[in-house]
Specification:
Blueprint (H helix, E strand, L loop, with lengths): L2 H28 L12 E5 L4 E8 L5 E6 L3 H4 L3 H73 L2 H10 L1 H23 L6 H19 L6 E13 L5 E4 L11 E5 L6 E5 L2 H6 L4 E4 L10 E3 L2 E5 L5 E6 L4 E7 L20 E4 L4 E6 L6 E7 L6 E10 L6 E4 L2 E5 L7 E7 L4 E3 L3 E2 L7 E7 L4 E6 L2 E10 L9
Antiparallel strand pairs: 1-2, 2-3, 4-24, 5-6, 6-7, 7-8, 9-10, 10-11, 11-12, 13-14, 14-15, 15-16, 17-18, 18-19, 19-20, 19-21, 22-23, 23-24
Helix pairs in contact: 1-3, 5-6
């Protein structure tokens, strides 16, 4: 029991003791405990000298006598010792009653204080429990974040081991650059102190060595997708937009193809800024309607799937003519093997750092994805790879450095979870999420120049940034 409760118990115990004492002591003080009461109605005088008289009058149902006590006259009581004791006792009782009343008030106040403290203690206990629960949740969250960061860093370990082999070479480059910077600073102070031709030769030699080092970088592997960045909102729910990955740095033309069928109009914009503002520079009327949304612009020409066929068309923007067309043997078309969203997306044309590709499915491969590398001039199939992944289960796909990356859904919760390397003819399951902000992706293609993914997401033209991981080739690599 807490101290306030102990105090309350002591008070109540004291009050009980006082009440018991009064019930036992008061009758003896006034002389009533020596009275013998008879059952008759006669007068019984107890102490003639003191003048006290008792009259018996009735009997209750339990057999107890109900009596009337008559005190002596006032002048007699004034000389009566027991009367004085009675008065003194009454005064003490009155004083005790007042004390008990005060004690009762204090007890009530202390009791309210105890109740208030009990409520506050319960509230504090609940807060401590909540703080403890929140701490556990927060610790779990921080632990999970750290674990996710560690999972992201694990693939870097084998690559860092390869970087060690070139660490000494890079240190030498840094030292030579530092020395050349010192020399160039000195030249500014004293022209002619060094032979210009000799200095120029050192710079050329260093640049050549740096380029040789850069050649050791292999093609990148996809590690992360961030974004999206919404460039524009236009067109129908399905469509395609793109730039040319082989165009020069000054050539930033954008091509726009709305809808996945029953259309032949391609709109051109000189730049992203013109595309956003809607300032068209030119319009092309193709000789055939296209099927799907998986077209690609590569080295100045548009490659697309001719409507209701497995024929690939190469169309030149400069001449406005069809330069080549070829049937993609055994390829399904017209919603036989589309992506999960349909839209005649049977044949997906794409480009990466290596060249031009076609992704499709055939009956011979049981509807699973086939990857074919194409000759950009003749559209001839140079080489094909048959995967074990069903085309109709793929959301969208794209090529980076000869590796096909397949997404699991065109709806919410999208991520890249399957990849196939044409270099090693092997596949693996990955887990690279990306934000499907507008809930329906009908076009997703990689641009090697911009290092970005172009996407058409439910009438929104968006860009995703990609993080690629480059590995330094060793002398053992072929």
């Amino acid at each position: 029991m807490s101290p306030p409760l102990l105090k309350l118990g002591a008070v109540l115990s004291t009050m009980a003791m006082i009440s018991n004492w009064m019930s036992q002591t008061l009758p003896s003080l006034v002389g009533l405990n020596i009275t013998r009461i008879t059952t008759s109605d006669t007068l019984t005088q107890i102490s003639p000298k003191e003048g006290w008289q008792v009259y018996s009058s009735a009997q209750d149902p339990d057999g107890r006598c109900i009596c009337t006590v008559v005190a002596p006259e006032q002048n007699l009581c004034s000389r009566d010792a027991k009367s004085r004791q009675l008065r003194q006792l009454l005064e003490k009782v009155q004083n005790m009653s007042q004390s008990i009343e005060v004690l009762n008030l204090r007890t009530q106040r202390d009791f309210q204080y105890v109740l208030k403290m009990e409520t506050q203690m319960k509230g504090l206990k609940a807060k401590f429990r909540q703080i403890e629960d929140d701490r556990k949740i927060l610790m779990t969250k921080h632990f999970q974040e750290l674990k996710e960061k560690m999972d992201e860093l694990l693939p870097l370990i084998p690559v860092l081991e390869q970087y060690k082999t070139d660490a000494k070479l890079i240190t030498q480059f840094k030292e030579e650059i530092r020395n050349l910077s010192t020399v160039l600073t000195g030249i500014q102070e004293e022209i002619g102190a060094y032979d210009y031709e000799e200095l120029h030769q050192r710079v050329v030699n260093l640049e050549s060595r740096l380029r040789d080092c850069m050649k050791k970088l292999t093609c990148g592997k996809l590690m992360k997708i961030t974004g999206p960045i919404t460039v524009k909102i236009s067109g129908t729910r399905f469509g395609a937009w793109m730039t040319d990955p082989l165009a020069s740095e000054k050539n930033n033309r954008v091509w726009y193809m709305d809808s996945y069928t029953n259309n032949k109009i391609v709109r051109e914009y000189k730049s992203i800024a013109d595309f956003v503002s809607g300032a068209e520079s030119r319009t092309y009327n193709l000789p055939f309607k296209w099927a799907g949304t998986n077209h690609v612009v590569y080295n100045g020409s548009l490659y697309f799937n001719k409507y209701q066929s497995n024929i690939i068309i190469k169309y030149s923007f400069d001449t406005g003519r069809v330069l080549a067309q070829r049937s993609l043997e055994y390829a399904g078309f017209h919603n036989v093997y589309p992506y999960t969203w349909g839209g005649f997306s049977d044949i997906d044309l794409m480009a990466d750092e290596i060249g031009l590709w076609a992704v499709y499915a055939t009956n011979q491969n049981a509807g699973n994805i086939v990857i074919s590398q194409l000759n950009q001039d003749t559209l001839e199939v140079l080489k094909s790879w048959s995967t074990g992944y069903p085309k109709r289960s793929a959301g969208e796909s794209f090529m980076i450095c000869g590796t096909l990356y397949v997404t699991n859904s065109h709806l919410t919760g999208a991520k890249v979870y399957y990849s196939y390397s044409t270099k090693t003819s092997t596949y693996e399951y990955t887990d690279i999420p990306f934000h499907n902000q507008y809930f329906h992706i009908s076009m997703l293609d990689y641009n090697a120049r911009d290092r970005a993914l172009y996407a058409w997401n439910n009438g929104h033209q968006v860009l995703f940034n990609v993080t690629l991981f480059h590995v330094i080739k060793t002398e053992d690599d072929t």
